[in-house]
Amino acid sequence: MAGSALLPSGIWAADRYEELRKELTPLKAITSYNNFYEFSTKKEEVAPLSQGFRSSPWSLKVGGHVSKPATFDIDDLRKRFPQEERIYRLRCVEGWSMVVPWMGFPLAALLKVVEPSPKAKYVRFETLQDWKQMPGQKSSWYSWPYVEGLRLDEAMNDLAILATGLYGNPLPPQNGAPIRLVVPWKYGFKSIKSIVKIDLVGSMPNSLWMQAAPNEYGFYANVNPAVDHPRWSQSSERRIGEFFRRKTLPFNGYAEHVGHLYARMDLRRDF
Ligand SMILES: Nc1nc2c(c(=O)[nH]1)N[C@H]1C(S)=C(S)[C@@H](COP(=O)(O)O)O[C@H]1N2
Ligand SMILES: [Mo]
Description:
By secondary structure, the chain is α+β, with helices and mostly antiparallel strands. The protein has helices at residues 11-14, 17-22, 27-30, 43-50, 74-80, 107-114, 152-156, 208-212, 255-258, and strands spanning 59-64, 70-73, 84-91, 96-106, 122-127, 147-151, 161-166, 169-170, 180-182, 195-201, 236-239, 246-247.
């Protein structure tokens, strides 16, 4: 992979990249402690239950308010968009965190190819629906398929990527093979896995978590130590592999890159 040769340019270098590299969570932990409710709500069950998942062939349909809707084959996507390494903090809304070396490309690069029209205000993402492969989807507790969304300007921010790998190898099923979103300044649930469809839409998408518990999981879900979850504090987190809790950073440490997106918003109300 090209990751290490490509010394992160622009905002990367500024983001204490080499320091984060020293904090990497081991591959073993990243691939065995997973939230992926389509397989199981128990983190340790996800990896074993997902091993036979068919992530090839795979196509990703991009449409909605765009001038050039298209369906991409995953191998074409990998060839068309240069894969970069991006080491990001991942903060789950449940209060734990990791540091993950993703491989992927900016979501903005894909969106530019399909050319969003002026009506496009939000981006809506959808995970595969196939209960034969994903036993968790037999549960009617959640409204499948898993849906997530971003405002268009958030989606165009260079930090938002579509990841296709981690630690230099293709994504394993439990981490969202073959392609998933990674939005490092938001709680982990926004980073939707195993995406089959992306639509540019005019109004705010209704995500699976907003439908499940609107008072607990808002659309924005920016990591914010000052706004507690109704059932627990968000001021600190447990980094997997560490003993002491550490302070949670505003926007998960990415405030200088994304803070401007929310300048005129009340982050307590729009959580
Ligand atoms: N389709 C789908 N995407 C998902 C989830 C899920 O259950 N289904 N869980 C989310 C949550 S809560 C987190 S914390 C991250 C976990 O990603 P990881 O297992 O790669 O660490 O994936 C997110 N993406
Ligand atoms: Mo999460």
